[in-house]
Input
Amino acid sequence: MARTDFKQRMRDGEILIGVSAPISATKSQMEDILGKDDYAFINTDSQHSAFNEETLVQFCGYADELDIPVQFRIKHTWQAYLIGNLLDLGPAGIEVPQVEEPETVDE
Output
């Protein structure tokens, strides 16, 4: 699925089901995870696991080879300033955790 198709489906309000995988997953492990159902995206995070940019690039590369967009959850809201940089590394979307109030978005 092309990244633009994924984003358009989100904008259209389509309910999209994804699956989580550890950021350290190999391509083979990712294939096994994705083979269990017809998922619209794969999610990984830096909030609950060790993370570096090289690992994210590798994860996104595997996902790209498998034609599945990546959603990446950052560690904390105070890292939101990195979203542009992180998107350049390959994810189709970024999840910012602990956002429960409109005021948090404004920060």
Observations:
- The mean pLDDT is 91.
- The longest helix spans residues 53-65.
- DSSP finds five helices and four strands in the chain.
